User: What shape does this take?
Amino acid sequence: MKGMTLIVKKTTQLIAGMVFMYGIYIIVHGHLTPGGGFAGGVVIAGSFILLILAFGSDFLNLVKEESGSTLYENLAILVVLFLAVSGLLFGTRVFFLNWFPKGTVGQLVSAGMLPLYNIFVGIEVAASILTIFLALIIFKEEISE
Assistant: This one.
């Protein structure tokens, strides 16, 4: 897949970073405002998809076996699972126990383990959506050849 025009590429370079930062904002503030890991992960994946659409898949040197995004996906799932089981490990026998100290209500660090869950769920969602998109691009390029 070839890239788009120079205007689209330059506009994408300006916008993709802001979209990525907005996705991080949604993830980090997910316990205070509507949003969180899933919504922020979708926005982050959208920034990468925007770059791929503007610059083309030739820019990424895509091959049949893309393992980078699935590696992040698997690691994020393992961390979320470890955080969920950590409550069981501390002798409380509660799955998904929020055992981190909680701060002042309304502050950024005020929800114990919830921000960590949001961060790793956001990484997992972004990686899985990006993996699906890359699989569709690779499949389309194999059909057209």
About this structure: The chain has one domain: 6-144. Residues 6-144 form one domain. The chain has a mean pLDDT of 84. The CA atoms of residues 6 and 54 lie 9 Å apart.
